[in-house]
Amino acid sequence: MQTPHDPLTTGTAQTAAAAPFPAGPAPRRATRQVHIRWDGNVVAVGGGAPVVVQSMTNTDTADAIATAIQVKALALAGSEVVRITVNTAEAAKEVPAIREQLDRMGIYVPLVGDFHYNGHKLLTQYPDCAQALSKYRINPGNMGTGKRRDDNFAQMIDVANRHDKPVRIGVNWGSLDQDLLARMMDDNGRRAVPWEASAVMRDCLVVSAIENAQRAESLGMPSDRIILSCKVSNAQDLIAVYRDLSGRCDYPLHLGLTEAGMGSKGIVASTAAMGILLQQGIGDTIRVSLTPEPNGDRSTEVVVAQEILQSLGLRAFAPVVVACPGCGRTSSTVFQELAASIQGYLRAQMPVWRSQYPGVESLHVAVMGCVVNGPGESKFADIGISLPGSGEQPIAPVYIDGERSLTLKGDHIAEEFQALVEDYVSRRYGAPATAATTTTDA
Questions:
Q1: What is the pLDDT of residue 299?
Q2: Structural domain boundaries, residue 418
Q3: Average pLDDT over residues 240-247
Q4: Which parts are annotated binding residues?
Q5: What is the pTM of this model?
Q6: CB crowding 217-231: b at 16 or more within 10 Å, else e
Q7: Where is the binding site for [4Fe-4S] cluster, in residues?
């Protein structure tokens, strides 16, 4: 009689049991560390520091009040560095005022100046702007051609050196150095088996970024003040470019899918591309370049960037709310409304809770819609509730730290559960009470 096949002791299953496939991202790529500073606030990029979340305003920088208000909103949402466009003399003149407004509001997020075409002139003509910025973003493809390009680039590096500012040398697919591209295309034509044009363009991006970084160093820029980026708008191209770039230098890398798009398209494309690279240990700062809806909230791109990092286990920014997708067992919308309410409430509290309750960003809340997975997920969470599904008893057991603690009933389950979450946060993450002491006069 043939012995039944045992997957636990034979074949590949035996190998898998002996050495399970590891969960989690690959070790972070080793890089130099760059510091972006403002008024005692130091954001470390690379060199083992946590991946940094960045964003960018879409206001007219010449409108100092509107720009300062948007920078504040982005910073409160969790953006650790905010980039602003500096494209005209009027914009450059207002940068110190924007910085002053933010400082008065207690918002010390570093500002990065985004320069194209005329950055060398603006930084030279407006030294207060150069000083108020914490970093300069330079696109070598938009600085002219030939000697004029070299002189303009050198002028920007000189200003950065004089003001002790780091730079991001950002090469873009849509603004490649055409002289370099033409030369590399000619070289490719002489290969025995020429590459596809798209492969040459990807290689050109990488070569341009590294050559300009090396040129900046030759002009006196310390290597620990240089960050590189190679932006493209296609996910597969981004993955290929950054894999190549990461293997050819040790500068910190800024990730972003440029012109990602609107809504779910932009979110999915950015997550797919950056998620793969981050999982492989590549990337030191990220930005999700979403096209906002008309009058939409610019802070959405910050939330998405945070959620990418938190989903990969690279960082924690806000408590996680686990909720089931719903099915025929969950005809009621109560669990959907409660999940949305709790998630919105927790994120809204984070600007205060971040300092008041250290570690609260690791909180795990479950809001489940029926008895199938509800109790199990609730037990795995720090605090969870299993709401009644179709045909179930109108009761909602609440689990705290894996134990069924109480049952909620009636018309105010949502409010009562939110109060329980508030109490749990206060008890678990609040500072322990200290005994009161009294003194007497001698």
A1: 96
A2: 320-429
A3: 98
A4: 324, 327, 370, 377
A5: 0.89
A6: eebebeebbbbbbbb
A7: 324, 327, 370, 377
